[in-house]
Design goal:
327 residues, alpha/beta, 2-enoyl-CoA Hydratase, Chain A, domain 1, 9-stranded mixed β-sheet
Length: 327
């Protein structure tokens, strides 16, 4: 009886998992149809000014008398007309969200969004990157940082806002900005390089399993998962890590020449206020407050590039992101 209950529980769990995956897929398809973006790669642009006004209107409607609300709507309409007439004189701020992972997979969308902005930006326009990135592979995060340098090279003011984390490769991206803001308890820094891997050589040896690795070149492979690692291989890997760390520090010093690298490039991380005192950031402020202040004088546009994915790819991507958030 107990085994039957266990089997039934496992069957039920599998069934619920499959149904959840199908449900997520159907929701994604319905949303895509509603927005008209089911097929093809596309750039999405959303007016954040309209979004903020809608929030304020909803709250005002629920919390003020009807007559007062109607009067305020008339005043808002006049203000909107005045803004439309003066729209050519208003500066624009383009907002891009970057959600990082180990492989910086959001870099492809970042590249397309920046390419669009570079073709459209005029004097006085700027870019805000809302960055959340705990770092990962060196090459991928280096490419993501290089996308941001394209904005700096064109003289477009760039601000990076860190509400949660910009560490290691994430800070490599953030440091490119003209101005870095962060929430008080955001995590920043981790200017270091790490490599780690398990080695199963003794396990294989204990079970009589031989593992052969053939290379041409003394350092084609330094450490392996299954072979017997040597001290020379370990030393070479440490040397390579030091070289990468040096490049990391040089890149940071290029954009923040006043930083005391001996103090901040130790691999440690700091919270927002500590990071401000060390010079890693320029101000304590959330992205929300920054945007609300900017909305008073600028037109704000959230820019995102969405690549078309097949239904199975979308399902796998959703499940992968859920797993990353869970673990």
């Amino acid at each position: 009886m107990t085994q039957a209950l266990i089997d039934y529980g496992l069957f039920l769990a599998k069934t619920l998992t499959i149904l959840l995956g199908i449900g997520l897929l159907l929701v994604g398809i319905v949303r895509a149809r509603k927005t008209g973006h089911l097929e093809g790669d596309h750039l999405e642009v959303t007016s954040l000014n309209d979004h903020y006004r809608e929030l304020a209107h909803t709250l005002r409607q629920a919390s003020t008398p009807k007559k007062v609300f109607r009067k305020s709507l008339k005043a808002d309409r006049k203000a909107d007309k005045a803004r439309e007439q003066a729209s050519e004189a208003r500066q624009r701020l383009f907002v891009i969200d970057f959600q990082g992972d180990i492989k910086a997979t959001a870099s492809a969308a970042l590249r397309q969004a920046i390419t669009a902005i570079l073709q459209e930006a005029k004097d006085g326009d700027g870019v805000l990157i809302r960055l959340e990135n705990a770092g990962g592979l060196v090459t991928e995060h280096g490419l993501a940082a290089s996308q941001l340098t394209r904005l700096r090279a064109r003289g477009i003011p760039l601000t990076v806002a860190v509400d949660k984390v910009a560490a290691s490769g994430g800070y490599l991206m953030a440091v490119v900005a003209d101005h870095i803001i962060a929430a008080p308890f955001a995590i920043l820094g981790s200017i270091g390089v790490v490599a780690q891997l398990p080695n199963f050589h003794r396990v294989l040896e204990r079970h009589g399993v031989d593992y052969e690795l053939h290379t041409a070149g003394d350092y084609k492979r330094t450490l392996t998962l299954f072979g017997e690692n040597t001290e020379a291989g370990r030393e070479k890997l440490r040397e390579q890590l030091e070289v990468t760390h040096g490049l990391f520090k040089d890149f940071i010093l290029e954009y923040r020449p006043t930083l005391d690298l001996a103090q901040v490039a130790t691999g440690e991380y700091w919270h927002g206020r500590q990071a401000l005192a060390l010079g890693l950031i320029d101000a304590i402020q959330t992205s929300d407050d920054f945007l609300l202040e900017a909305a008073a004088t600028k037109d704000l546009y959230q820019v995102s590039y969405n690549a078309h994915k097949k239904p199975l790819e979308r399902l796998l991507s959703s499940l992968t992101q859920a797993a990353q958030r869970l673990f």
